Amino acid sequence: MTNWNDRISPVVKSVPPSGIRKFFDIASEMEDVISLGVGEPDFVTPWSIRESCVYGLEQGYTSYTANRGLMELREEICFMHKRRFDLDYDPKTDVLVTVGVSEALDIAMRTILSPGDEILIPEPCYVSYKACATLAGGIPVPVPAKAENDFRITPDDLEPHVSPKTKALLIGYPNNPTGAILSKEDLEAIARFAVKHDLIVISDEIYGDLTYGDTKHVCFAGLPEMKDRTILLNGFSKAYAMTGWRIGYALSNPDIIAAMTKIHQYTMLCAPITAQIAAVEALRHGEKYMRKMVSEYDKRRRLIYDGLQKAGLKCFEPKGAFYIFPDITSTGLSSEEFAEKILMQEHVALVPGNAFGECGEGFVRCSYATSIEQISEALARIEHFVNHL
Amino acid sequence: MRELLELLKHDARRPAKELASMLNISEYEVEEKMAKLEKDKIILSYNTLINWDKTGENTVTSIIEVNLTPQREVGFDAIAERIYRFDEVRTVYLMSGNFDLLVIIEGKSMQDVANFVATRLATIEGVTQTRSHFLLKPYKKDGIIIEDKEKDRRLVMSI
Ligand SMILES: Cc1ncc(COP(=O)(O)O)c(C=O)c1O
Question: Least enclosed by CB within 10 Å: which of A61, A213, A338, B60?
């Protein structure tokens, strides 16, 4: 018998499967389970965006587009960055429309990493970062962010992990899984660090529109001298509830975008035209719907933040994305034990913090992208669980 | 205040405890604010949106365009009052355009409603013309889609 496993490339073998999966298989078999596990909006894409795509299909827009994406969409992306962050990107040379931020992450890493190059990845973080770096032939260097800093990364955290091979830094704020954001001052410190070590910065700002209270998202590329050094990634999945459309984009200097376009051209050709048409509508007319969803998340955020504390779990107030990251060490359980027990006993699905890096141990990720009713019920169950250990 | 109203508009039965969490104030403050909104007649009532079709109860709704001759001193208001005082009348709006009042009436049967229009409404002094339209099927009311087929369709996935 052929052992097909032996034929799989060692690099691919070295990448572990996502740790989020484990519990979902059990959860999907259970009735009355409340899932705080998924990282996607419970909203359906706003109707005007869906309708524009339907209209586009009726008009016969079913072809490939330019590799870099529809000019209209690239222009809207640039207008938006000019308007919101006073950033000047040229739609002809500085933008690449991708199949979600996922593709953008992949090709950004493949573009800048040579074999053996190191990329600093603050943890806890989105599960794809390290895998993409490894698959690109680079070496991901995890940098634990400190819980006592509410998981905000600082140059002091990063400095000990720098080596002569360090080529890049990947930051993702507002953060999945912690809900942490970085202030302008925090980001300026990171910018100085990047200049000091001459690093390229990949900034995944997919949750940039999802910030709450009086906090406003600061675009890393908008900091002085950061624009050319930064590969700014963003997309429509979270803010516009468009996860299934698969559409995002990268912004950077013309050389990097041209190089990324080369990979994109040969491996993806272009992002789906249907999603591109919808994205144009989202940028032209979708902001009010987006704001409405954000204000809805904000109410849920306050409800869950309050509820988890009342249940006796310590947590810091998340200011972005739609996750909260409570500390469960007071229960004496590990993250995985906590997640497994609460799923079995109370039918609440959440994700153990160590799925996002070792320093996430002792925490669990709860997504509040779910209805108020479900959140209230989940909170009651969590409280019951914690009080009956 | 606006936030509290928005929350109540969506679901008036939310417990004060939940509202307090979401608004970042105490339960006591929520209750106080609501009492004041009620007292100031900003909150007029807490209604329930019912899909009567599903209950098997028959109700008939008629939307009636009414033309009036305005009266000296009081304009349309006095006639409007004579109309909106009837229990059968659910809604009355003063309109711009081809007619003056939009009146919504609920009754047990078409006969019932037609009778009301002919004997009570059309005979009020100052009412010059009425045009009735019977409502066949509600699709959306007060921002709520009556039979919403869209539900949480998120699938199990691994990231
Ligand atoms: C931080 C982060 N980046 C990127 C993605 C992937 O986004 P997209 O749907 O645009 O590929 C996710 C999705 O969960 C995410 O959480």
Answer: A213
The fraction of chain A above a pLDDT of 70, given in percent, is 99
pTM for the whole structure = 0.90
Over range A57-80, report the average pLDDT: 97
Distance, in Å, from the CA atom of B84 to the CA atom of A281, rounded to the nearest integer, reads: 44
> Do residues B58 and B106 both lie within one domain?
yes
Q: Kindly state whether residue B19 falls inside one of the protein's structural domains.
A: yes
Between CA A297 and CA A293 the distance in angstroms is: 6
A40: closest CA of chain B, how far (Å): 8
Residue A97 is predicted with a pLDDT of 98
Q: How confident is the model at residue B157 (pLDDT cuts 50, 70, 90)?
A: low
pLDDT, one tens digit per residue, over A322-347 is: 999 999 999 999 999 999 999 999 99
3-state secondary structure of A329: helix
Binding site membership of A172 for ligand 1 (Cβ less than 6 Å): yes
A338 lines ligand 1 (CB under 6 A): no
Instruction: State mean pLDDT over A275-288.
Output: 97
Q: What domain range includes position B133? A: 52-137
Q: CATH number, domain at B112?
A: 3.30.70.920
Nearest to A303 among B11, B22, B158 (CB): B22
Phi, psi (rounded to 5 degrees) for A64: -65, 165
How close B24 gets to chain A, by Cα (Å)? 7
Instruction: State the Rg of chain B over Cα.
Output: 21
Q: Is A20 in contact with B158 (Cβ distance < 8 A)? A: yes
Least CB-CB distance to B158: which of A18, A372, A376? A18
The answer to whether ipTM exceeds 0.90 is no
With respect to residue B108, please indicate whether it lies within any of the assigned structural domains. Answer: yes
